[in-house]
Write a structure and sequence with these properties.
Layout (H helix, E strand, L loop, with lengths): L1 H12 L8 E3 L28 H4 L15 E4 L3 E7 L42 E6 L13 E6 L7 E5 L12 E7 L11 E10 L69 E2 L45 H15 L4
Parallel strand pairs: 2-8
Antiparallel strand pairs: 1-3, 3-6, 4-5, 4-7, 5-9, 7-8
Length: 339
């Protein structure tokens, strides 16, 4: 009897690490939100499902902004290392939480089964994404403003997760940009949900002023055996800048896939692993309308060319028009299906 009475108290005292994931950083909206801040559990790790727009947009944390000086710095052409975890207590920011330090190396959910972060194993992770809006005022950001610029297809397997930043990212306006992390997990481990956390962010080391293109909706175009599609359909893909997935909410969805056919940040929707290097206004000269029966795959334009005078005639400059033409021909021969 004594053991039975003591058990609830003991369990409630333990720091909670089980279930769900967020990207933790001081630049996060809602960084210090706890389970008691709202009338319902609205911690950053809480999944988003069938919520109103005000509830799911920025996780309902716009009234809990970060310190004005805290930014998630995104180095152009390099990778930013982030921390994904089931609880802030499992990150290097544990001192600002109430549960103490429960870090366990690269494990996003210490002392928990992989089902805590909704996967049956490494072959079942579905990827996550970082998106950016070139607006410093988060309250003015709308869903259509976000463009996915980096994807990690092994997310959320590791606590320390790298996101590669395109080298041509233009600088943010004064006051920085607004970013968000997005994740939709596999249907094989737990109820389906959406995840979103917003951040103050800033591009560092920018060397380009070419703007990001207007994002389009990603289309399901990869091999999809679970839905009877054994072959990819590259002509049905969205190329260039793509919007994040807004799915399974009560309002403002942009994706309407069924509950057991969620959208993923991976090849299924033409989100390549790493930096999304083709998101700029000059990335393509023309993008044909996608179609399930199309065999046309647009080739991205190479980066703006700087012709460097050379005294040698025995080699071709890698950035010369000839080299660019060869690269484009190679891409077409290798990847564009022949009619």
């Amino acid at each position: 009897m004594r053991v039975a009475l003591a058990l609830p108290f003991f369990v409630s005292w333990l720091p909670s690490c089980a279930g769900h994931v967020a990207l933790f950083h001081p630049s996060m909206y809602g960084f210090n939100v706890t389970s008691s801040t709202f009338p319902y559990d609205n911690r950053p790790v809480t999944p988003l499902y069938n919520y109103t727009f005000d509830q799911w947009w920025f996780h309902g944390h716009l009234d809990y902004p970060p310190h004005p000086g805290d930014f998630l710095e995104l180095p152009a052409g390099k990778a930013v290392t982030t921390e994904l975890a089931c609880s802030k207590t499992a990150t290097s920011y544990w001192q600002s939480s109430d549960g103490g330090d429960v870090q366990q190396g690269d494990n996003p959910c210490p002392n928990s089964d992989t089902s805590a972060y909704h996967t049956t194993g490494l072959d079942d992770v579905k990827g996550c994404a970082l998106a950016i809006a070139y607006k410093s005022d988060a309250r003015s950001v709308q869903p259509e403003d976000f463009t996915v610029f980096s994807v990690n297809q092994t997310c959320v397997w590791n606590r320390f997760t790298d996101f590669k930043v395109p080298s041509r990212m233009p600088p943010c306006p004064e006051g920085g940009c607004t970013c968000a992390w997005f994740w939709v997990h596999s249907p094989d481990s737990g109820s389906e949900q959406n995840y979103m956390n917003g951040f103050q962010c800033n591009i560092t080391g920018s060397t380009s002023d070419v703007p990001v293109a207007e994002p389009q909706l990603a289309r399901r175009c990869g091999a999809d055996p679970s839905n009877g599609q054994t072959q990819a359909s590259p002509g049905n893909c969205t190329y260039g800048a793509k919007a994040p997935f807004y799915w399974l909410q009560a309002e403002r969805n942009n994706m309407f896939e069924g509950y057991y056919s969620p959208p993923f940040y991976n090849d299924l929707y033409n989100f390549q692993d790493g930096a999304q290097d083709d998101i700029f206004v000059d990335s393509y000269t023309d993008i044909p309308s996608p179609s399930p029966n199309s065999t046309i795959v647009p080739a991205p334009v190479t980066s703006p060319i700087t012709v460097v005078p050379s005294t040698s005639t025995s080699s071709t400059n890698a950035n010369s028009p000839t080299a660019s033409l060869r690269a484009s021909m190679w891409y077409v021969l290798c990847f564009v299906p022949m009619r």
